Structure formats: C-alpha cells, structure tokens
Amino acid sequence: MLIGKRKPCRRLAAGIFAGAMGLLIAASPAMAQGTDGHRMDRPWMDSSLPPEQRAELVLKQMTLDEKIALLHGNGMAHAGNWQMPLTSQSNGGAGMVQGVERLGIPRLYLSDAAYGVRSSGENGRYSTALPSNLGAASSWDPQSACEYGALIGRELRAQGYNMTLGGGVNLTREPRNGRTFEYLGEDPLLAGTLVGNLMKCEQAQHVVGDIKHYAVNDQETGRNIVNVVVSKRAMQETDLLAFHIGIEIGNPAAVMCSYNRVNGDYACENSYTLTDVLKKEWSFKGFVLSDWGGTHSTEKASAAGLDQEQPMADYFGPKLKEAVEAGKVPMSEIDDHARRVLYGEFLSGVVDDPVQKGVVDAEGGLAIAQHIEEKSIVLLKNDEAILPLNAARIHSIALIGGHADVGMISGGGSAQVDPPGGNAIMPPGKGATHWQDHIWFPTSPLKALQAKLPNAKVEFNCGEDKAAAAALAKNSDVAIVFAYQWTSEGMDLPSLSLPDNQDALIEQVAAANPHTIVVLETGTAVTMPWLDKVGGVVEVWYAGSSGHKALANVLTGEVNPTAKLAMTFPRSEADLPRPVIEQLSAEDKGQGSGAVNGRTHTESKYAVQYDEGVKVGYKWYEAEHKQPLFPFGFGLSYTTYAYSGLKTDSAQKTVSFAVRNTGKRSGTEIAQIYATIPDAAGEPFKRLVGWQRVELAPGESKTVTVTVDPQILSVFNEQKNGWELLPGTYKVFAGPSSSETPLNGSLQIQ
Ligand code: BGC
User: Ligand 1 pocket, 182 CB below 6 A?
Assistant: First the structure.
C-alpha cells in the first residue's frame, strides 16, 4: 500500500521535472523536444516512427568512417588471436560493434546464447542453461520456444549484452554433426516455427535477434573449407525454408552467414543465398553478419550482401574504406549495409531502451528450465509400463553410470553454458575451461530421484566395473543406466554409437536385471544395439540447469511425458544418405574447424554432395524404404490416444479429426498432419504440414483443426525460379508420428 501511495508522488515529481525541462528546452531551439522526449535535432530518436525511417534519417547524418564502424567487429574477448584496440571494452562477450555516440546510436555487445548466455564463468556471472535446442524442439511447442527465447533475452540484458548470437536452425541432414544439439531437428516447418517463436520473444526483450548459420552448414568436418553441393530446389524446400519460416515469424534483426561454401561461393560472399534469396525474395531488411572469421573478401563479400564482418576488421575496416575511395565499392552499398545495421538496432529496441546491467533471476530461470525440460523428455520405450516407477512396489533402485550421482552432461563449443560452481566432473589437475571440455552440470539425478522416492534405497555404481554394476542391478528392483554422448561445435561424431563402451555396460546390466531403464543424455540420435533387452528408454538430451528435477518428475510419473522426436533415430549409420563422412586430406587437415583464412582454405577441393536433395530426415527413410529405429515425431506417454474421423475442406485447406485420450491419465498429445504432393512433383513421400498439441483428460476427446499453409504444400521450380502450388490431389495423413498415420484423406487444389 505504501508503495502504491508513493507512486503518484514519484510520477508527479517526474512530471514537474519533465515540465521544467520542457520550458528550458523550448527556450533553446537546438535542444527542443519531441512528444516522446527525443530531441528535435535527432528526429530518428522519435520512437513512434517506423524503424526504416529512423534508420534513413540517422544515416543521412553519418560520415563514411561512422558508417564503416558499424560494419565490422572489434575483436573477441577471451580469444587470444582476435584482439583489437577496443576488445577489452566488449563486456567479455563474442564481439562488440561501435555505435555513433554523437547521434545516440549505441554500441552492440554480442554474446553467444544458444541454450543460455555463454562465458558467464569467465566473466564471473551466472546464466541459466536451458535444455539443448534439439531437446526443446521435441516439445513441438511454440510457447515453450517463446519462454526459452525470452529467458535468454532477459539474461543477456542483465549481463550487459544487447545482441544475441543464438537462433541456430540448420537442418539435421547429418546426424553426426557435432552441433545437432544446437539446432531444431530435421523438418523445416517444425524447426522454422520454433526458431521464429524463440527469436520473436528474445528480440522482444530488446536484444538484437539473430538466426544462424545461413546456410547449409550441416556438418562440422571441414566447415571452413567444405563446398556444399546442393540443388536450388533442395535448398529452397529444406534448409532455406527453415530460415524463411523463422524469419517470417521472428523478424530477427540479423542473420549470421556460415563458414562453408554453397555451390562454390562462401556463404558469406554468396550472392544467391544472401541477396537473391534472403534480401530480395524474402525482403529481409536486417543485416547479415559473418560467422567468426567467415569473411573472405572485401569487394566480393560486400557486393554479395554481407553487411558486417565479425569479429575483426580485416576486410570490412580500412580495406573497405579504401575500396570506397578507389571507387571499387559504391557508396550505395555502404549505405545499404549501414542502413540495415541501424534498422536492426531500431527494430529491436536497443536504441530506445539502452542496456542496463542487473541481477539474473536465477530462481525464475531454474523453474522455466525445468518446465521446458519436462516438455522435452521423450519416452522412447516403456514395456509393460515399467515407467512410471511405482513407489509402492519399488524398494531398491540401482543408478548406474553417467556420473548420475553428481551431474548431467552438456553440449560444448560456443554454445556452452557454464555451470554454477564449475564442472561437476573436473578432471584432476585441470584448471580453466576450454571450449571443448566435457562439462557436467551439478544436477544430480541421484539426489533428485531420492527426494521423490524417500522410502526407496537408491544406490549408485559408476559403471567402470561392469560386473560390479551388474551385481548391484541384480540386487535391485529396478536398474537405471545413465548413458551419455558428448558433442560439440568443431567436430562431428565418428559414429552414432554411445562412446566409452557404454553399450556393453547396458547389455551387462540388462542381462542381470530385465527391469532396466536407459536414460540417454545425448546431443543427437544414438544407435541402441541393446534395445530389445531393456524395459524402458528415456531421452533427456542435454537437460539444462534443472534437468535432474524434470527427469525425476517424469520417472516417478509426476509429469506425464509429451515430447516427440524432432529427428529420426536411424538403426545404423549404414542407413544414412552418407554412411561415412568423408574425412579431410592431410593437406586440408587443420583448416577444417578453426576459423582461419589460410591458403589451403581457398584452394581446398573438399566437398560434400547433398544428393539426397529434398529427402532430409524422415523423407529419406520413407523414400528409401528404410525402417528407422525411432521415427521422426515419435514419443510415448503414460496414457494412450486414439485418432478418428478425418475430414478435409479443400477450399479452406483445413484438415480436422478427433483425438481421444483412451487411458487413465491426463496427457498432451502432439497430433501431426502430413501430406504428399501431386505425382508431378516427383516427391513421393510425406512432408509435415502441421501439428497441434492437444491437452486431454482421461476419456476426453477433442477435435483438432489445422489450416495448411499453401507454402508448405508448394514446390520450388528451378526453371521458373519460384514456388508453385501444383494443381491436383494432395493426400493428407494424421497420426501420432511420421510412421504411424492411421487417418488419411485428401485435399484437392485447382
Ligand atoms: C560459431 C558461431 C558463434 C561464433 C562466436 C563460431 O565459431 O560458429 O556459432 O556464434 O563462433 O562465438
């Protein structure tokens, strides 16, 4: 009440102050104020004007040097080889871009923030780790994606940043890609919708939003030299479509171009992807920044549509100025680049709402991370209802392997979020962290499970001695093996097998106790040679700061799992479009994963042919008649659902059907709609065209109606260089996963 009473006084005081200022300002014409308090000599500060207009107004006041300052970075903190005079002023993040102080344009402070804000350890700060992006994609939940982005946006700002480098949305063409966990799976509609919602809500916190790595940067092996060979149609219908949907929904101010080449040209000097598609076809008005060290030229990159070099000024600093002065780069190009950066700053609100450091809401973050992880855990197998654990009947539980007594693993590279208190499994004698250390969060599944099951005896065996682990399993009612797979930027996995002989450990434990459950902490799919021998499998991904609590809630049934895979789990690498990732030649080695601009770099012949074309993920398995281990869209629940009564309306392009909860527990079913397009397209396999999360009480039935966006039914015609919606019959299918679609019907398109 007291506070409530005081508020008007404060407002009054501010009002009097503003009024007095108004009088003063009116007396001096140079300082006159507009209605929202901006100075009249700075009309671009009028927040009621559209960002385009504001950018144009301020651009007119800028010198060439000021414009060029917006077009490059100033080094990278904590990176020895990337230091520049102003690097120490970059707030400890990935980069900093000068503003124009005299005109009120702030600096940009950039940080990586894939599943949380990076480098908090090095900077003495705290960040929440959310579940990995791939994990969170398994929620198929735009609302969770929004909460995810909003949390990161708040924590960025609290730490003094006003630009994110998150928003990874490369499609899972290559599941061994070490960055798969940073992306949102294999389907363009799902991935694009989720990244769009994530970025919309992140940018709404007044940070410059970004989506990356544009484009077709789908493997890490040789990422700086690889030439990705892929048809325009395949690109447009898959990888580029994910970006397009994300950009339409999220309207991010920035797009990061990737390291690789696309059909010959580096992605950061590729006029097809940057100008023809992104800026012209999609009318993207924001700016393109290069991945770190991914700029390779001045004139070519500038003409192709790169707007900002990061993190240095090797090509877009003095060399760009020289090129302008020599008439090699037209001033109009510089204006376009600068205008785009300015537009992004106005659009995202970083000009009107300058960043102010604060204290991260750690408690709030932990609750959100837990809630999202509860929606991200995929129940892959549950024979004879081994889960949820029945507290009344289970008296002893063996927890085996995966350091489940102390923590859970996380994903590495520039996505890494630092755990509070440091690495829970710090190898002896190890000091500072390296970007490819295996980092374990201090999230103990043992403690979380014991707290939920106080009357059960929960014992741990680290799994090093398989016989001892099996003996403990044998003497327990249930055994839970924690299996992990660490992945990171800068590497691809040699295979999808669990590392460190964990398959053998699982086999031995399962042989000792058929009531064995495997918990997977993985960054991508894994093969499961032991699948038939275990009772349950739970995929928790990289589970984030509250992963242990979310897991305990799912294992004990307090939470009914709802998540479904955003990527296919293959039976074996032999079923992938490329059973083996081609390795680099001796000459190319060392140029593969760092960002360097050496000679080998430009002369390398290393290439990857994406001959599978549009058949990415589940489309490949269907077209090639290969049975996956677990299909895209698959996930079990503690209840069951039945689908019935599919109807379509061709004029409205709607598909509707009923989903009933046929079990005894409340649950949320992710009902999926797929379609095949007319034969003339030559794509005889299903594509996801929509989905809905349906919350159902036991026995309850609801009608799901989804309107299918014509874009998602269209094909890209290379001859016409455009999209077309072919006339004809579109078969539609509905069901619980890509390989189980009990309902079908059709839409007729004229
Ligand atoms: C990564 C980017 C990251 C950048 C800055 C690069 O190595 O590919 O995703 O944003 O570094 O840390």
Answer: no
